[in-house]
Design a protein that fits this description.
heterotrimer, A mainly alpha, B alpha/beta, C mainly alpha, B: 9 helices, 10 strands, C: mainly alpha, two-stranded antiparallel ribbon, branched-chain amino acid transmembrane transporter activity (chain A), transmembrane helix (chain A)
Chain lengths: 326, 242, 289
């Protein structure tokens, strides 16, 4: 096991190395793939905090992506508020919504929680289309191209990729830190057995709320970064069901409730997604068809996901069948 | 001796069935109180009512004089009353030590402190060799000990043990009895539900007998063993101590 | 106007009832929330469309084919996927059926593209007037058939052996097994019947509305709203809930515009789950599973 300092150092080195690599890539398409991979990894890692650790299976995280994207974009074009601030405002709005959902769903469990999150996200989607004065409806919002750090707008695609990378690293760091603290132990305990956790004095409601609120905040920040990257948002581009399902899918395939799982899920699926879109653009929905198939396959046969299984195989190989501690 | 726990006329109905009817008893400081009764006598429901997992239809529960009726399980645990479950509920993917840490975090906010407490408790119940194994891999006997260890790590004043000896081998039962005795000597108050007659009769200072949701007798193990109502209702006229 | 809207809403609700009853039946028996249910309706609509396009079959003739096909598809889905997740954790059930739903809707998308497909019949726009109220012929037929099918289902559950076995399993899986009921077979029958009901609804919807690959999501959400309103697992609840939601839909579409009509039932859905999670007819605690 690495010491804490060692962990921060090695993680920092990995990030630095990746930044250096990013600037070696000149191909715009590859940079795009890389940005999307980091972006989806960040959404998956954020979803994983509530879905994986706290066992709150939301399929409505598109709502938070949308709030983050719209808050940032609308504050920017209407009031010239820097996206860096808009991003935080969007995060806070999302956190508030998550708090509201958390409070009204205290008594419902399982599929009903999932259904309410779907309904809330759908409500937001409908509102974004209908409230034309605020959101410009289906016409969407175009963001002006005025490069500069204050505007979070850059000439080079590399900068966006680095930004997305740093954001993933931040969420990973938060998750890792949580795992070493009371909150991490509590969340996993709740997921594993809620009654046993309560008997040991774990404040279940508060912990779940905390996890969903944090998850919502981070998801909205991710949405804001995405909006600044694509520079044009409309209900279908930031509030679609894909933003709800894909983070969940990536977490499950990578490993639910593990800090690395969602990242691995994204590293496997995002390039696959881009490849399918590029190579089979004449077949609509092929990527989602395959996603659906993978989802069914994994939950039926490998519900633990890639990462935990990989770790197990590695340990077995290294220690000749004796379980060791990470 | 000071009163630790007071249960006053607790009643719980599920539909037409009264699971617990008008049950009262008291537990004194550092006492071991045994609760026995045939299956379906309402023992586990009684624990649910005391520990906050079910809300009683009538009656009150006092912990050190404070009314805790209707409080949440987590609040009651924070006040110093922790229970275990008859059907063990390990956090399967966490290691034994991590399981126990969850309990220890109730009174320790720092991981280093919590681990220190957890390590002590794990050693006390004899799970040290398994500390780094995922809880899901433990055999049933060890799971029962883990259940006890987690509860102990919350540093309770009073411990409610629900059949911690079920499924254990005779040797393991002997160890468990020793452990429970030592805990009491260390200042704990313990209420224990148990089917294993010899264990409960040798451990308990007093025994409460339940039958069909009601308390039918209360007294020292000796008095209980000779109580004709208990023998009649519970043992069907035949009482043997092996 | 309100009378007109209410009557149209009730007629629409009749079709929703078929979808919702299937969903609630499956939940009651298997304790599984089936996220593919809307896609079963979608499949049924496309089948009806294909039969019409390929063989010139009138939707009402397809009524004898499509539900049967859906029944078989139901058996297949049950055996391949659903049977494996019965009794497993929520997330497994949710994501297995969500994944399956993605597969179905996107397979159709890949094959048919995203265009709207509809069936033009001579009677699609026929109306008759009763007092001050104008009613579409397909709506009336749909409601009539829905009512008959519901009655048949009711008699089936009440009097046949399979029906009784389904009800017994709903009440208590373990005692049903002890009484010698083949629970697996009951599951398969239930899922297949639920799918066939979705197929009937699909045929009845086809002369009224066009179909597209992601339409399942809309019907899934409607069915959920209905079932939650009526109480999960309760068939009478689903019937009443469906009529209410039908009326809510026509009334809100008229007063708020069709863009907002979905919003109305999402709001109802959320409100019901918060204020009366057991629904109008459901048992308390069902929502906590």
């Amino acid at each position: 096991m690495l010491k804490k300092g060692g962990f921060v150092l090695s993680a920092g080195l990995v990030v630095l190395l990746m930044v250096a690599l990013i600037y070696q890539i000149k191909n715009k398409y590859y940079l795009d793939i890389l940005f999307m991979t980091f972006f989806w990894a960040s959404l998956a890692a954020a979803w994983n905090i509530s879905g994986g650790y706290a066992g709150q299976f939301s399929l409505g995280h598109a709502a938070y992506v949308g709030i983050g994207a719209y808050s940032t974009a609308l504050l920017y074009i209407n009031f010239h508020v820097s996206p860096w601030i808009g991003m935080v405002v969007g995060g806070l709005f999302s956190a508030l919504l998550a708090l509201f959902i958390g409070v009204i769903t205290v008594k419902v469990r399982g599929p009903f929680y999932t259904l309410i999150t779907i309904a809330v996200a759908e409500l937001l989607y409908i509102s974004a289309i209908q409230l034309k004065e605020l959101t410009h409806g289906s016409e969407g919002v175009s963001l002006p191209f005025k490069p500069g750090w204050v505007n979070m707008t850059f000439r080079e695609r590399e900068t966006y990729v680095v930004l997305a990378l740093l954001f993933v690293a931040l969420i990973y760091f938060i998750t890792k830190t949580m795992e070493r603290r009371r909150i991490g132990y509590y969340l996993i305990a709740i997921r594993e057995n809620e009654d046993a956790a309560r008997a040991l004095g774990v404040p279940v409601k508060e912990m779940k709320l905390l996890a969903t609120v944090l998850s919502a905040f981070l998801t909205a920040v991710g949405g804001a970064i995405y909006a600044m990257y694509i520079m044009f948002i409309e209900p279908d581009s930031v509030l679609s069901f894909a933003f709800s399902i894909q983070p969940a899918l990536m977490s499950i395939i990578g490993g639910l409730g593990t800090s690395l799982g969602p990242l691995i899920g994204s590293f496997v699926l995002s390039p696959l997604d881009m490849f399918l879109r590029e190579s089979f653009s004449h077949i609509n929905g092929l990527n989602l068809l395959i996603y659906g198939f993978l989802l069914v396959l994994f939950v039926l046969f490998w519900p633990e996901g890639l990462w935990p299984n990989a770790v197990r195989v590695y340990r077995k190989w290294r220690s000749g069948g004796v379980e060791t501690k990470s | 001796m000071a009163l630790k726990l007071k249960v006053e006329r607790l009643t719980k109905r599920f539909g037409g069935l009264t699971a617990v009817r008008d049950v009262s008893f008291e537990v004194r400081d550092q006492e071991i109180l045994g609760i026995i009764g045939p299956n379906g006598a309402g023992k586990t429901t009684l624990f649910h009512l005391i520990s906050g997992f079910e809300r009683p239809d009538a009656g009150r529960v006092f912990l050190e004089g404070q009314d805790i009726t209707g409080k949440s399980p987590e609040a009651i645990s924070r006040l110093g009353l922790t229970r275990t479950f008859q059907l063990v509920k390990p956090f399967g993917k966490m290691t034994v030590l991590e399981n126990v840490c969850v309990g220890a975090f109730l009174r320790r906010s720092d991981l280093t402190d919590a681990r220190a407490v957890a390590e002590d408790v794990v050693e006390l119940v004899g799970l040290k060799p398994f500390a780094d194994q995922p809880a899901a891999t433990l055999p049933i006997g060890h799971r029962k000990r883990l259940e006890l260890a987690r509860a102990l790590a919350t540093e309770p004043k009073i411990l409610l043990l629900d059949e911690v000896m079920g499924g254990l081998t005779p040797a393991e039962i002997g160890q468990m009895i020793d452990t429970i005795r030592r805990l009491r000597e260390g200042g704990l108050t313990i209420v224990i539900i148990e089917h294993h007659m010899r264990a409960i009769m040798s451990l308990s200072d007093r025994v409460v007998v339940m039958h069909q949701g009601e308390k039918i007798a209360e007294g020292t193990p000796k008095e209980i063993a000779q109580d004709s109502r208990v023998i009649e209702a519970y043992f069907g006229g035949e009482l043997r101590f092996a | 106007m309100l009378l007109q809207l209410t009557v149209s809403g009730i007629l629409l609700g009749g079709i929703y009832a078929l979808i919702a009853v299937g969903l609630t039946l499956i939940f009651g028996v298997m304790r599984i929330v089936n996220f593919t249910h809307g896609d079963l309706v979608m499949l049924g609509m496309y089948l009806t469309y294909l039969l019409y396009k390929g063989f010139g079959l009138d939707p009402y003739i397809s009524l004898f084919i499509v539900p049967l096909a859906l029944f078989l598809i139901g058996v297949l889905i049950q055996k391949l996927v659903v049977q494996r997740v019965v009794g497993r954790p929520h997330e497994v059930q949710i994501f297995a059926t969500v994944g399956l739903s993605m597969m179905l809707s996107n397979a159709v998308l890949a094959y048919f593209k995203g265009d709207y497909r509809s069936v033009q019949t001579t009677y699609s726009t026929d109306t008759i007037q009763i007092g001050p109220v104008f009613l579409g012929v397909p709506q009336i037929v749909a409601f009539g058939i829905s009512a008959v099918i519901t009655l048949v289902l009711f008699l089936f559950l009440k009097f046949t052996y399979t029906g009784k076995a389904i009800r017994a399993t709903t009440q208590n899986r373990i005692s049903a097994t002890l009484m010698g009921i083949d629970v697996r077979r009951v599951y398969t029958m239930t899922f297949a019947i639920g799918s066939a009901l979705a197929g009937i609804a699909a045929v009845l919807l086809m002369p009224l509305y066009p179909t597209y690959p992601s339409i399942g999501e809309a019907y899934l959400l409607i069915a959920f709203v209905v079932v939650v309103l009526g109480g999960l697992g309760s068939i009478p609840g689903a019937l009443v809930g469906a009529l209410i939601i039908g009326v809510v839909e026509t009334v809100s579409a008229y007063y708020l515009g069709s863009g907002w009509k979905q919003a109305a039932y999402f709001v109802i859905f959320i409100l019901v789950l918060i204020m009366r999670p057991q629904g109008l007819f459901g048992q308390r605690g069902a929502e906590q599973l």
